[in-house]
Structure formats: C-alpha cells, structure tokens
Amino acid sequence: MAKRSLGLGKQRKEAKKRKTGTQLSPEGTPVPGMSPANQLEIELEDGIDPDDELAQLQGLWKTYFQSDRDDELVLNGIVHECDRMLRAANQQDKSETSLTVNDEFYAIYALALSELTIFKAGQDDSAKEVSGFFDAALEMCEKGLEEFPDSRALRLARAKILLQRIPLEYISDLDVTSEQADKLKLHELVERAQTDFQLLESDPELSFEILQLFDDLVDIVENYGHEKDIEEGLDSDDEDELEIVDLSTKHPLYLVRENLSAHHEWLRNQLANLASQLEKREKSLKSTLFHPVSRRLGQLYLKAAEKPSQVFLTLAYDNDDDNLTEVDGLDMTDAQKTAIEFTSKGVNHLENAKKEDDPQTWVDVAEAIIDLGNLYDAESADQEECYKKAEGILRKANKATHGKFQNVLDNLVASG
Amino acid sequence: MKRSSESQRHQSKAKQPVMEEDKVKSLFNEKIWDPEFQQGLKSEISASKPYNWGSIRDLVNDDLLRAVRKEIETEIHFTKKETDIYKVNQSGDLANLSGLDWSDLSRLPNLCKLREILYSSVYRDVISYVTGAGKLSGSKMDMSINTYTKGCHLLTHDDVIGSRRVSFILYLPEPGKTWKEHYGGGLRLFPSIVANVPHSDHSAKLVPQFNQIAFFHVQPGFSFHDVEEVRVNKHRLSIQGWYHIPQENEPGYIAGEEEKWVQTNTSTLAQLESSVLQDYEFPKSERDILPYHQVKHFEKIIAANDVSDEVKDETPLSAISDVGILTDSEVEYLAEFLSENYLSEQGIKNLQQTFLEKSHLQIDSFLNEEKSELLKKLIKSDELEKECPYNASEVRNPWKTAIPPHKWRYLYIDGKSHEKFGSEQDILNTLNKEELPNYTLLRKTLDPSANETECKLIDVVEFLQSSIFKKYLALVTLLCPLSEQIMIRRFRPGKDFTLATQINKSELLKNVEGYVDAVLEGSLCLTPTDGWGSGEVGGYELYMDNQDDNADKDVEDAAVYKTDDTGDSVLINKPPQWNSFNLVLRDESVLQFIKYVSWAAKSSRWDISMQWDVKTVE
Q1: How far apart are CA B169 and CA B225, in angstroms?
Q2: Which of B318, B460, B528, B588 is the most exposed place for a label (fewest CB within 10 A)?
Q3: Number of structural domains chain A divides into
Q4: What ipTM, to 2 d.p.?
C-alpha cells in the first residue's frame, strides 16, 4: 500500500510519541517544535556593503523599529552591539581606524536604551532600572551631541527619549494630589522636547512616532484623573462629557495643562508640515503614514473647533438672556467664523485620510461635515448642502458595513 | 476542548444564615408582591413569543444592586474566555460563597445578600407562579457573573443542562445610564421551526437595563436564545443563574424526577449529533459519490506515482491521462486558474512531501494573478456597494442561509435550487425532492450582470470539480477521491459562525477497500480585507484535538466550554486571508469550527469550502 498521510489528529499523536522518544533516542531525531535560536533577517538597502558594521547596525535597528517591537532579546542584542562598537571605536588607534561611529550610531544607541524601558516598566521594583536606562539614553545623546553638535538625528532622539520618559517614569508615579512641581519641572522637559523636535525628511516614521508620543502626553495631561473612566470606554457614548479634574498649582502637570491649547496648536502645525512633506512622497508612504497623519490632524482641528462651536451654538440657539452677547471673550460672529475655519480644515484633512476600502474613514468625514453644517446659519443653503452630503456618505457607508452606522444616520435624519 | 459536565459545576448546597421573610421582601421592588402584578405578568408570559419568557424592571432595591456592582468591580477578577460558542469575561463561580471563611465573606456581603434573596422561598414562589414552571429548588444555587465588553457574545443555545428549570439574567450595566440598542448585548430569543430546530433569526429582543431581570422556563427544544455581540467599549455586566428541580427534603421534591428529566432531555450538542436532526440541517455534511469511471483513473494515477515514465507513452488519453505526473495539456488547463509555481513536477513533489508529513498544507497565492485580481475586485465591490441580506427571509438566489443556528449560520451557494425554510413543511418538501448540485445549471438561472461575483465564483467551483483538478489533488495527497462537496460561503460580520463539530463519515463508503477514516477538507479563503491576524474579530478557522472523545454527552453543558488555557489542543488556527488554500486530512479526533465574525470585522469572510471522501490505493 502506498505511504499516506495519517490524518491531522493521528499525526499529532505520533508527533507527541516521537517527542517523548527523542529524549531517549541515540539517533537524536530532531524534536518537533524546537527550532534553532531565533534568527533575524536584516534587509540592507541596495549599494550598502554588508560587511559595514554601521550599516548592519542601522539595518538591524530599522528591522526592529518596523517590527512589532516585542522581542526584548533583539533589543538587548542591539544595545550590546552598540556597546561593543563604541568600545572598539574608542580603543582603536585613530590613524588606522576602520570603525568610526557617527551621529546616527549615537542616536540608535540612545533610542535602543530608551526603548528597553518599555519592557522594564510595570515590573516590580523596576523604577530605578527604568530611570537608569533613561539617564543612560540621554547621556548617549549628550555624548553624541558633543561630537556632532549640529546633528538633527540626535536632537530628534533626545526629543523622543524625553517624551517617552515623562509618562513612563514621572507621570506613572503621580496622583491628583501630587505637589512636587518644583522638583520635577515637567513643563520644562516638554518644552525642551518641543525645541529639540525637527521633522527629519529622511525618517518620517520616527518623526510621526515622536509627534504621536507628544499627542499621547497632551491627552494624558488633559484627561488626568479620569484614567479609569476612560478604560471603561466613555468614548463610545456622546452624552458622557468628562469634567476636567482640577489640579493644584503645585501639581507637576499643572503648568503643562495650562498650556494645553498652545501644545495642541504646536502639534497641529508639526503634523501639517509632516503631511505636506508626505504628500509629495512615494505612494507606499501614503497609506502607512499620510493617511494616519491626516486623520489625526483632522481630528485635532475638530477638537480646536469644539470651544468656538460651543460658544456659537449657545449664543445662537440656547440664549434666553438678551444681555449675553459673548462667552469667554468670543461673540457669536467671531465664534462662528473661527469654528467654521477649524472645522473646514478638519474636513479637508479627514478627506485626505479617506481610504476607498475603509468605510470608517468615510464616516469620519461625514460626521465632520455634519459638525460643519451645524455651524452655518439655520436652514441656509450651506447647511442643507452639508447635511445632504453627509447623508449620502453615511448611506453609502451603512450599506458597505451592513448597518454599522445606522444610529449615526438615524440621528442625522431624525434631527433634519 | 470539551463541554464541562454538570458534576464539574460548583452548585452550592451548603447552608447559610436565613433572612427573615419580611426582610427579604423589603429588598425587592414591592410591586412584585402585588397579586395583580403577578397575575398580569403571568398572563403576559404565557402569551409571550417565541416562548414563555418575561422581564421585570427595577427588581431589587437600587442601593443594594449598586453596592453589588461596586463589590463586583472591586473584588472580583474577570478573565476573558473565548471558544467557538462565546467570547466573554467570566468571574469565578459564586456558588461556593457560603463555604468561604467569614473574613472572606465580608468581601462580598451584598452579593451574598442578593444571592440569598434571589433563592429565597418567597421570591422563588413568585417566579414559579408567573412562569408556570413548577416548584423550584432553593438549595441548589447556581449563579455566575459575566461581563460582556466590546466584541463579547454568546451564540444560540437552549440552556438545557441537567436539572435546570428556569434561567434568569439580572443585568447590571452602568446604573443611572440608559443602555442603548446600538450598544448591542441584547438578549435575543429564537422561535423554532420544529422542536430542536430554531429559525435562523431571532423574533424577540430585550435591550437590558440596570436592575432588570429577564427569565424563562427552560424548555428542551424550544428555549433557544443568544447574547448579541456588544459593539461599544462598555461593560454589560450581568448575573446569570438557574433555578433547578427541587432536591430531596425540599417542597415539591419528587423522587426520580430529576433523573428522568436528565435522561429524557439531552443538551444542544447531543441533539445536533442525533441522526433525526441531521435531516433538518442545511447544508448537509454529506458528499456526493463520484462516478466510478472517474475514480478508476485516479486509482491508476496514484498507483503509477512511483512507476517510471515509460508508462506515460502507453497510456491512452481520457479527460485525464493515467500517468503519475501532469501532462502539458493538464498543466495548461490548471494554469488557467492556479499559480504555475504549484504545477511543476518539483512543486507537486514538495507539496506531496509536506502533506505526507503534516496531513496539512497551506498554499498561499493559490489562484493565479489574473483570476485573483478579478475576484478580489468583484468581492470587494460587492462588500462595499451592495446591500447584504441579514435576515434569512431576505436572502435571494443563489444564496441560502445555513441552519440551525445552534450549529451554524452563514450564507452559502451549493449548486442546488433556492430554498427558504419558513415551516416544517418547507423542509419536508425539500427532503422529499432532493437534488444533486449542478453549478452549470444554477449559473443559467442568474443574471450575469447582477450576479457577476457569484458567476465568477461558480467558474472557480466548476474548475475545482473538474477531473483534472482532482487528478492534481490526488497527486498532491496520494489519496484517491471518492466523493465531493463544494460550496461557496460568506460569513457576515455580526452574524455568522460554525460551532465545533467532528467529521461526518460517509456510511455508504466506509466499507470501500482502502477507505480512509477521515475527510479531506479544502478551503480556499477569499476574504478581501485585512485586520484578521490578531483573531480579535474572529473569522478564523480552527482545528483542534478533541481531547476527550468519551465525555458523557448527556450532561454536557451546552453553553459553557472548558477553556483550554494551554492552547495545546489547537492544531491549526488560520485567520481569513486572500487567496490562501488550506488542505487538511481531518480524522475523527479533530474538531473544526469557524469563529463568529465580529461586527468590527472590515468585511465578510468569504471562502470556497471543499470536502472529499478518500481512499488509499495499493
């Protein structure tokens, strides 16, 4: 009879038997499931000498950076390799140097050290270790900057390390009653990170990641005291508005929070610059970076429009007091103008973020257009046009997702 | 993975301090003690559809329930568990509370109080009266706490386990807030076509609110229900429990009643496996026997596999040549659909070797680029631009809905006439006039412009049915196909799944010489979207070891699977992909299912599913 497959279940049983047998077997049949130590494939760009140690390190770092970053062993490997190379570079007789480290080397070393904290944070008694890694990472930046004072890569690395450090090491240790503002001076660290940040055209991924870290930080500060509520997922229900939790002037986050709107504006500007850089770049970066950058930018403009929108809607539709002509220094016309300006920008950026095969991105646009419609004068042609356009998009998205957006559509049609 | 048995549940029979009746009553909404209210509720329940069920708003003292919720939040640990039938955050069983130390009990005093009043004699009498279910046990307490967060669900089942008489669910979503319908998490009740065969779609739904209880009389074959997937980031917390048949020394105890009940009423799974019910499931897990003139060529091909090329020239040509390799014209035919990489002699040898070693093959980019691109464009545009039916009554030719929903639900095309089952008679009519699949004929009934995707998929099915493709299959597996079943399937987000089942061996073919006690299964996954990799949105096809074949099926829990924490029993876990062909020789010990596709999935999961009975050839 011809040899045949045993069947999935039987094959597994056989494999288990073999596995038990292997330990005793002198022939050393390979044990299923045991593979040689993890091997990493590194892609080097064309024209790079594969024997070039720096190029190898860059390739390794890039591979790690673009992976899921869940392999501590690889990261440790990178740190050890950096350490070895730095010692080798220092020991060499300068005249016959075959290994010279550059600013990018220091940046990689610093970023890898900083990245290690992600694996350490949250473990018992890890505070000191985390702090030590951040210190070492910043030290590496300083060392590099001594040699290469104009290096943009190193300043960008420093910005990233600072923005990683603030939440991971400092904020995680605070609560709403903390009062060590003088000691921590977190607002200064935030400002230093902003000063260090410059878009690096050669590395838009890193630039975006740093802006995302800044975005997260601002978000943490804005919602400080509500961490648990957010975990419960209040985002899914419009009626739940979070009240800002008051912080004392001595709270380390107080000054950062005082500057929230300036921070948001800074973030919008940086993201806008990044988006216009990306618009000119190759197609592959469009979906990986241009879309998410535009999406966030759109959301931030809508956020900026919230306050003037609220003022306009209150004064226009909810005002029983004839003497009330302005709120927070904004009169109705100004509020309307500002709100429309921000919301329109939001719509434009969300349009840029739209993906043909992702109905959620269409709905983001539709919802922003409804917001815009609400800001035009009641029953004006502009308003009607917005509602009509949004309804069209929502109907299409609803069809594409089998009713996922029915409640959004119902709300629009019911209020129309 | 197996269903946990009655004996493994921790039902508390321990004594605990008894509260005064007045005290118990004071902790409930006083309306429930009003005979008029009880009478009204009883009439409502007896007239309710699809079976006897009811609900009470604001059941217990609001402060007590808020305190219970607080205790649960702070004191109980939830673990997310996922099986073929559910995804839910489960707490530990509460039944052993009275067995705890007093110091431990003090952690959950309100929960303990709640349990006591829910099982109090005076409240049980109300439930017994309004449901007409007969006396209920107060000593056999059976409760658990679940929280359904985004993506959590529990598929259709009837709660028939052991001595359960009444099921109840007390809801505790966030107090003071309305739980809205679009959050999902509703309790949905299914009408039955006949006993044990529920309709595909529910006919009643309860959107749960804080301090609302829903309950129903457990009726074998009828009390089918599910928990709709929660669609938002919110906690739909609930306490689920059962009232059992009275136990010895309790009022209403009848010697032997429980044993008789358990013996008569089998669980959902056992029903599914009974041959009577197999008549009522569609599509049938049966394969149509291939004509012998075709099979005999496959036999020769496999026998020739090891023979030298000399035979090649001597073989007369039929639809397929009898040599153990592909002829040029066969390669040409196959290449119209398949990637050429897999058609070379070496390519086939490699596949053969892997299949021999693993009884499993995964072939990516199976269809050639031209076919793949065209199908992807069509399926994507169907997904984004066409309305997809979500109720069985709206499903149109050539699609049909797989039933019953306590086994599976999905849309399929099987090459037979359209059918829609509204009543038992519809099913009997279909059974009386059984058809064989004929895709060529089916295509002729379709409007080629309105059903372009379906027509192109049917082209693929016809290709897979061809003798030349089956020759290719025989070469890759060294197994001779004896029968086949090929279907196009679509699993809609928020709707479709299959539960874990074993293979259905062919009774007709089992005595054929060389018959392999297994089914060869193929699945060409044609899901045109990404985002499935993590398994979060379901849709994956899972093969697992059925670790305990001899479990006592009569007492299996229809709703609760044992979690396999080690993941050791998982043999294959394949998320949906584009153009990926999975071939498995599945023997009897292996369970397989396709996980419920979440609302959050970007599209339906599409595939062409294939099965063949096979034999070896000497």
Answers
A1: 12
A2: B318
A3: 1
A4: 0.74
